[in-house]
Amino acid sequence: MRGSSTCTAGAIATPDPAGQYASESVKSVAAWLESRDFDTAPVYDGDEPMGYVTDDLLDGVGDDDRPVAELCHPLDVGVIMSPDTGFERLLSALYESRSTAVKAECLGA
């Protein structure tokens, strides 16, 4: 990518990403993720993000009618990146967060 040293996480982030409300049921959020082929989405409490869900977290939830707020991962310092994070650091963080199997697949192993 040309000029990647000046590209930041904020420049390539999805503005206002599609998400679900905390009161939605776990099963409806799982179906929503699958229907859009998303692997991750934010969970909102009103207009504010309060957490996130992944397809792995919701895999096999069946008919779980609990609010997704009870199951979602919290947003904390460990999962938030500054919009000023450089592109190389962003890629490195994304790579580090992937499973060993995905890393092996990316490396052609």
TrEMBL record:
InterPro entries: CBS_dom_sf (IPR046342). It comes from the Archaea. This is CBS domain-containing protein. It comes from Halolamina litorea.
